[in-house]
């Protein structure tokens, strides 16, 4: 099975009748153009306005426009005919209380008129039929999801109309009426970013902060502070920065104002070069180099060797030294052996020691990602210099792959990490292993104890180091009827459930997550129980996973479908706990989950793999359309998993990796070993980040499911086993 991202695209709400009704309603949508015809002039006006706005969007106004955040008369676009009318304003400086949520009715046999309007509004939004969307807004208002059409229209007007034509009163009223909702926060963020784009920094300052924030929003807020006279230092900017339009705008200004200089930008340029983010690297380079130097930079990025052979030794300036260093860092991407030999022969003695050390770390990273045995020696040559978190982690992993592990080097390498990285359970565990191996057993036990209560891969391994078998924690008091009723009355959860029923997973998930963001343990357990009642299994798991002191494993490690998955596994003597552990990681029990590369169903089968397995096991009635069917998907998935397991010598570690990345890859990874390694070390040193995380999660999941199914203590170490070297051989499996 091809390597695939774990993100899931939209899926139906467990094949709900409501989703089928939504599709039936969409078949009526051809009638809506009749409404659009009447509103065509308005659409034309909006398109013209959008073009006007695009022409001026990058030019800051001579004087910042009015923020529109104070009550009182406002200049702005009159509402689109048929759109919402502004609700009465609250007194100046006050926020009106949020309206009481509309009750969430059980799934009806046919959608109400208001719900039909919501469905039509979403379709119009997706088709960019803005006048049709405007017509649906008042018709949809009575539905539990009535705020969504209103938000979609306001978002369109906000982003596409000139500043003096935006419906400011409508924006204000929406924020007042939906102050503590996901969409209220989302519209606040939209308005903030639009204001930042047009240079209206006073509005940005008044709208911020937002609850569901991100780097671009935070960069916009920092830039507004800087532009209105409040000091923003380099540290704040660098901690917030992520590539994107508002963060680049912040950096443009801070570089121009000399808040950011070479000392801050050089590490970020090198990090971008390491990550092969060439567009970002070019932007950082433009801050650091003059036009002539940028011409050289462009040349070396096109062909580093061709450029390098023409350069003087040693470089004559700081900028030339950096350009040579970047060119040498690009070389191993084409041929590591040629690059290493050339670097050592021609440049190692002509560059500053710190540049040579950084380059050794870059060559080591390329080597270790190819499981090249030279990587550890090159990391030792580099020493404990500043590296990216990614490269720091691989320095430790390279050491763990050695026949005789130098535990003092492992501990020193972890000590060189940033504090936030050292706090990760993986590095706490391996540091504790180092302490134990070097005779500091009491310190090791204390470190193990610090993570042994965490329900993850390294929490389980730490517990076993303390002599604790892996068991299921005591179940907390059951969710009461009152607690469940309170969860059901939560307006955010109501809206999320309504959207799950319609099959609108992309909208439902963030609405749900926003609703549970500040819940305590009892509220989270109740919300998870509500999701169980509604058969929204991924929300059961993800919600219950957030509890801090009360742990209900019947939610965290839910095993739905009444044992039918276990039955399919038992039919071919496959470990049901492992299968459930894999499904929990693959799809979170969403029956028609679909990955970004096309893997489908509970067990995330790629179409070609499903077809191959069906032919192999004689499933004559298989069709591609049936891959999401429960029986079809689990029969094909368990059979394929069993084939991979047998092909990889019965190792669940290797087979889990093969199920995610394709069976040829763990065969190749195993062949690079020169001695047997612990299963935990093999899992930790898988070169693909997604597959490494996947394998650790699947194995930890399987251990807990085994404890639940058997009622007996379990051992993750025993399940991981040992991985021994074996020459790579062809496999017939796809």
UniProtKB/TrEMBL annotation:
GO molecular-function terms, A-Z: hydrolase activity, hydrolyzing O-glycosyl compounds
TM regions (residue ranges): none
Region feature (Disordered): 1-20, 61-108
GO cellular component term, pick one: periplasmic space
Domain Transglycosylase SLT span(s) in chain numbering: 568-671
Low complexity: bias regions: 61-79, 96-108
Keywords: Signal
Keyword Nucleotide-binding: no
All copies of domain Lytic transglycosylase superhelical linker, residue ranges: 488-544
Keyword Transcription found: no
Pfam families recorded: SLT (PF01464), SLT_L (PF14718)
Top-rank taxon: Bacteria
Gene3D superfamilies in the record: 1.10.530.10, Bacterial muramidases (1.25.20.10), Lytic transglycosylase, superhelical linker domain (1.10.1240.20)
InterPro entries (UniProt xref): Lysozyme-like_dom_sf (IPR023346), Lytic_TGlycoase_superhlx_L_sf (IPR037061), Lytic_TGlycosylase_superhlx_L (IPR012289), Lytic_TGlycosylase_superhlx_U (IPR008939), Transglycosylase_SLT_dom_1 (IPR008258)
PANTHER family: SOLUBLE LYTIC MUREIN TRANSGLYCOSYLASE, SOLUBLE LYTIC MUREIN TRANSGLYCOSYLASE-RELATED
Similarity section: Belongs to the transglycosylase Slt family.
Record-given protein name: Lytic transglycosylase
């Amino acid at each position: 099975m091809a390597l695939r991202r774990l993100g899931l695209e939209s899926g139906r709400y467990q094949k709900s009748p409501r989703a089928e009704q939504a599709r039936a309603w969409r078949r009526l949508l051809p009638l809506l153009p009749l409404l659009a015809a009447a509103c065509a002039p308005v659409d034309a006006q909006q398109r013209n306005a959008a073009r006007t706005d695009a022409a001026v969007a990058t030019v800051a106004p001579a004087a910042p426009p009015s923020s529109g955040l104070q009550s009182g008369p406002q200049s702005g676009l009159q509402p689109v005919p048929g759109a919402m009318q502004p609700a009465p304003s609250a007194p100046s400086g006050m926020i009106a209380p949020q309206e009481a949520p509309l009750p969430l009715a059980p799934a009806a046999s046919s959608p109400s008129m208001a719900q039909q309007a919501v469905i039509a509004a979403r379709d119009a939004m997706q088709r960019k039929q803005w006048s049709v969307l405007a017509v649906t807004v008042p018709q949809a208002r009575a539905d539990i999801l009535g705020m969504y059409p209103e938000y979609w229209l306001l978002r369109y007007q906000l982003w596409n109309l000139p500043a003096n034509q935006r419906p400011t009163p409508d924006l204000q009223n929406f924020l007042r009426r939906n102050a503590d909702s996901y969409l209220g926060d989302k519209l606040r963020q939209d308005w903030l970013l639009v204001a930042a784009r047009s240079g209206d920094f006073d509005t940005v300052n008044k709208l911020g902060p937002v609850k569901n924030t991100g780097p671009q929003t935070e960069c916009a807020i920092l830039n507004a502070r800087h532009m209105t006279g409040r000091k923003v230092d380099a540290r704040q900017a660098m901690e917030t920065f992520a590539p994107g339009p508002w963060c680049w705008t912040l950096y443009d200004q801070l570089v121009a104002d000399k808040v950011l200089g070479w000392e801050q930008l050089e590490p970020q340029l090198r990090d971008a070069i390491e990550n092969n983010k060439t567009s970002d690297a070019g932007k950082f380079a433009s801050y650091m180099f003059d036009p002539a130097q940028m011409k050289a930079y462009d040349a070396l990025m096109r062909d580093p060797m061709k450029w390098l052979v023409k350069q003087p030794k040693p470089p004559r300036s700081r900028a030339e030294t950096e350009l040579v260093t970047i060119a040498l860092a690009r070389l191993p991407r084409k041929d590591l052996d040629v690059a290493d030999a050339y670097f050592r022969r021609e440049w190692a003695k002509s560059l500053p020691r710190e540049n040579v050390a950084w380059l050794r770390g870059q060559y080591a990273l390329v080597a270790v990602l190819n499981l090249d045995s030279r990587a550890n020696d090159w990391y030792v040559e580099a020493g404990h210099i500043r590296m990216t978190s990614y490269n720091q982690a691989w320095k430790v992993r390279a050491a763990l792959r050695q026949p005789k592990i130098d535990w003092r080097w492992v501990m020193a390498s972890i000590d060189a990490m940033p504090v936030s990285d050292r706090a990760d359970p993986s590095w706490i565990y391996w540091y504790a292993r180092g302490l134990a191996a070097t005779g500091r057993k009491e310190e090791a036990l204390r470190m193990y104890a610090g993570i042994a209560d965490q329900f993850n891969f390294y929490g389980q391994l730490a517990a076993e180091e303390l002599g604790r078998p892996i068991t299921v924690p005591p179940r907390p008091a059951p969710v009461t009827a009152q607690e469940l009723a309170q969860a059901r009355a939560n307006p955010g959860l109501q809206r999320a459930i309504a959207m799950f029923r319609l099959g609108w997973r992309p909208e439902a998930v963030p609405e749900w997550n926003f609703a549970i963001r500040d819940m305590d343990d009892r509220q989270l357990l109740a919300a998870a129980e509500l999701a169980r009642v509604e058969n929204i299994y991924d929300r059961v798991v993800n919600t219950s996973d957030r509890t801090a002191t009360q742990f209900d494993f019947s939610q965290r490690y839910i095993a739905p479908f009444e044992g039918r998955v276990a039955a399919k596994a038992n039919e071919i003597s496959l470990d049901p706990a492992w299968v459930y552990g894999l499904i929990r990681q693959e799809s979170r029990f969403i029956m028609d989950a679909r990955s970004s590369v096309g893997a489908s169903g509970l067990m995330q089968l790629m179409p070609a793999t499903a077809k191959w397995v069906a032919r192999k096991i004689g499933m004559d009635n298989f069709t591609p359309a049936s891959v999401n069917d429960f029986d079809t998907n689990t029969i094909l998935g368990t059979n394929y998993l069993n084939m991979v397991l047998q092909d990889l010598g019965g190792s669940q570690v290797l087979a889990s990796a093969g199920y995610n990345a394709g069976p040829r890859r763990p065969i190749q990874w195993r062949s690079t070993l020169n001695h047997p390694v612990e299963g935990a070390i093999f899992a930790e040193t898988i070169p693909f980040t997604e597959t490494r995380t996947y394998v650790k999660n699947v194995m930890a999941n399987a251990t807990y499911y085994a404890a639940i199914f058997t009622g007996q203590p379990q051992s993750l170490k025993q399940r991981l086993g040992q991985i021994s070297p074996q020459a790579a051989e062809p496999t017939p499996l796809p």
